[in-house]
Backbone:
């Protein structure tokens, strides 16, 4: 039997564990659940897995290769370590929070994927050689195992982490869209200045004031690029997109305020509070994709109906986030002011979008 044959068997077993992690649900468990005990056990299993990855990699890093018996023992130790990681993950009941559970599952899955990658690398590498790929794969397992120390310890911390991640993505999207709008407007100004002799201050002032800086210069037929709506925004487009930017900025403000409220008032001390936090995280997770869809529809050539549809979707998501936040424990009376303000901002901008697109229906 080829010395590495047991490693092929364990690779198949690890793939089965990975499939179960991706598809399965942890049981509620019959014994009383203790969160500190869970974290201690998970940290130990991640540490053991890191050590087994090191042992396996070293065994196949230089001649002579381990015997078939030693390879079998190494493979069993790797499999047992991964099974222990998965077993401890399954201790975590749904009642501790679906947001927390998902983050623990993702971390566990990454460890298993890393170990599968390491076994693949060893099996595909030339005999008795330490490849760069093997070093990278080993480091990948180490890095995945080290994540356990950075995982949130309860559902409140998990929801804070999820909201912060969403806020970062939305903030980047808003800044990128502002940059694109400024760049396109600047390009139009440059074209006009080169063709008309306008000075920069005059064009800039008109743009800031929301006017068409070149409305009285030439007709569309005379200025060819203005007739190509694949590359520019018309005055009507700019008015519509201004309200869309208002919705995008409201999205950023909404996530920022909800995140602060969860940090200040969020609790994971009862099933009701845990469920409320999960509801917030679930609906807030829809903000970023909705912002992206709206932003994509804002590129020229603008389809007003597509913009209206995506704006309405985003406004609906934001309204739900604000409603859920207002009725949850993270929003005491002291927090109701910003909820009302942002609700008004969402309604105001959405109504403007409807008004600008009414003629398209």
Residues:
């Amino acid at each position: 039997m080829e010395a590495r044959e047991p490693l092929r068997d364990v690779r198949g077993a690890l793939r089965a564990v990975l499939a179960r992690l991706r598809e399965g649900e942890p049981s509620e468990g019959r014994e009383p659940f203790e969160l500190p005990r869970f974290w201690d056990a998970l940290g130990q299993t991640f540490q053991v897995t890191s050590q087994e990855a090191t042992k396996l990699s070293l065994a196949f890093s230089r001649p002579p290769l381990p015997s078939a018996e030693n390879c079998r023992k190494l493979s069993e130790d790797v499999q047992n370590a991964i099974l222990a990681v998965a077993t401890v993950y399954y201790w975590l009941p749904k009642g501790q929070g679906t947001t927390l559970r998902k983050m623990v599952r993702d971390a566990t899955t990454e460890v298993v994927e890393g170990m599968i990658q390491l076994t693949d690398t060893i099996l595909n590498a030339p005999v008795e050689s330490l490849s760069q790929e093997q070093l990278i794969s080993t480091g990948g397992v180490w890095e995945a195992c080290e994540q356990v120390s950075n995982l949130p310890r309860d559902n409140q911390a998990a929801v804070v982490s999820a909201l912060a991640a969403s806020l970062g993505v939305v903030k980047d999207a808003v800044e990128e869209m502002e940059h694109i709008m400024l760049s396109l407007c600047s390009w139009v100004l440059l074209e006009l200045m080169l063709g008309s002799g306008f000075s920069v201050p005059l064009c800039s002032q008109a743009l800031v004031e929301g006017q068409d800086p070149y409305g009285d210069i030439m007709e569309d037929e005379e200025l060819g690029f203005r007739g190509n709506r694949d590359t520019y925004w018309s005055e009507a487009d700019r008015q519509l997109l201004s309200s869309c930017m208002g919705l995008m900025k409201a999205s950023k403000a909404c996530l920022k305020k909800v995140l602060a409220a969860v940090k200040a008032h969020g609790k994971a001390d009862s099933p009701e509070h845990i469920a409320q936090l999960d509801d917030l995280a679930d609906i807030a997770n829809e903000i970023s994709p909705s912002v992206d869809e709206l932003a994509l529809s804002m590129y020229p050539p603008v389809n007003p109906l597509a913009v209206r549809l995506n704006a309405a979707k985003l406004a609906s998501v934001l309204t739900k986030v604000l409603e859920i936040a207002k009725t949850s424990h993270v929003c005491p009376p002291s927090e109701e002011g910003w909820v009302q303000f942002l609700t008004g901002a969402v309604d105001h901008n959405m109504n403007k979008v409807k008004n600008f697109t009414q003629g398209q229906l």
Remarks:
- The two ends are 73 Å apart (CA to CA).
- The mean pLDDT is 86.
